[in-house]
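quick one
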Amino acid sequence: MGLPFPIDLYDSISNEICRVGARMWRQGFCAGSDGNISARLDDDLIVITPSGVSKGDMRPDTMCVIRVDDGEHIHGPSPSSERAVHLAVYRERHDVEAVIHSHAPKSTAWACTGLPLPDAVHPEAELLLGRIPVVPYVTPGTGLLAEATAKALTPCTAAMLLGSHGTVTLGDSLEGALARLEMLEAYCRLVIELRVLGQTRRLTDAEMTDLLKVKRDMWGLPDDRY
Ligand SMILES: [Zn+2]
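structure w/ zinc ion:
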């Protein structure tokens, strides 16, 4: 029996997932078999990384296909143990084409403080990431983490921290989700370094208002704070 999806599309998405995984691994965002990556194959199906493999050394023909609605495993080896988090995002946000979960070190360090991530610190982060929710800690690999993630998600969320765990970034492509992960990691590094310096100049309300105007009028990007 043939596969219930176009093999050419599966091949090209799988190749892209391997390329993104290698870039994450080279940047030290995933030790051991940490992290998972997925992208939409069509409205009903996603391609997702298998469980227990290094993101630095994946083969495209080992990528899994699962159904968004009920999580049914359609193709490939056993899918990532965090698949429920990915599925929760795709169910809530029909505009999202790709999701990446990682334990990028600076972001994960901040996620382990239990503190909210400060905003109004750096203009690029405001433009490209916006408000970054911190999902309260729940045991990984359980339906509870997916539930908590869905609850924290808004129509504007681009990136999230999972409390005492790691990151989730969303994109309209795999490249977009990776760019947001890199931005989130750079932003957390900046915020941590500012703590070392002991002083942060927050953008003023007027500066934030001007910046959000640019974000809406020039960039056409969504933001909860308009
Ligand atoms: Zn994880």
